[in-house]
Amino acid sequence: MENNENAQKIELSQFIVVKLGVEQYGINIQYVQNIVRMINITRVPKAPYYIKGVVNLRGDIIPVMSIRLKFDMEEDIQTDSTRIIFVKLEGNEIGLIVDEVKEVIQLSEADIDNISRESHEEKDAYVFGVGKIGESLVTLLNIEELIKVNDPLKV
After folding, report:
1. Cα–Cα distance measured from residue 130 to residue 113, given in angstroms and rounded to the nearest whole number
2. Could you tell me what percent of the chain has a pLDDT over 70?
3. CA 112 to CA 138: how far, in whole Å?
């Protein structure tokens, strides 16, 4: 019986698995507010290169970021699978453009390998670990670091 109780205490986290190019990334579901098909994005002058602009979502004006551009990947290509995932952190909401939303997965702490911080690539700061699902690996995004925009009006 005691083993069963210990098994119950394992922390499970849910992640939405998204694709950017051929890579799979996981976004912790606790931050996700909404997922929508691509909608019209209004450009904002002097925004950072990775901020595509803003959208009006149910009366709220929300900035939209290209994760591809922030990761120095090629420009987003809109397809029928392209989605905007709206995440909220400490009262700030932002949309993240992804190529495709795949599925929701559950990972225990044992399924997640933390990443060492020895790399000096900027995009490595946006990742906190790698999740293992069977034979597949999912890079887990650090949403706090990813959506940090020091001053959105500076280029």
Report:
1. 5
2. 84
3. 9
What SS3 class is residue 87?
strand
Q: Which two tokens stand for residue 94?
A: 């932002």
CA 78 to chain centre: 17
- Which residue reads 């990972």 in tokens? 107
**119 lies in which domain range?**
10-141
Q: Express each pLDDT in 45-66 by its tens digit.
A: 999 999 999 999 999 999 999 9
Q: Residue 62 sits in a domain of what CATH number?
A: 2.40.50.180
d(CA 116, CA 103): 27
Task: Using a cut of 0.70, tell me whether the model's pTM lies above it.
Answer: yes
Of residues 28, 107, 18, the one with CA closest to residue 67: 18
Main-chain phi, psi angles of 7, to 5 degrees: -65, -35
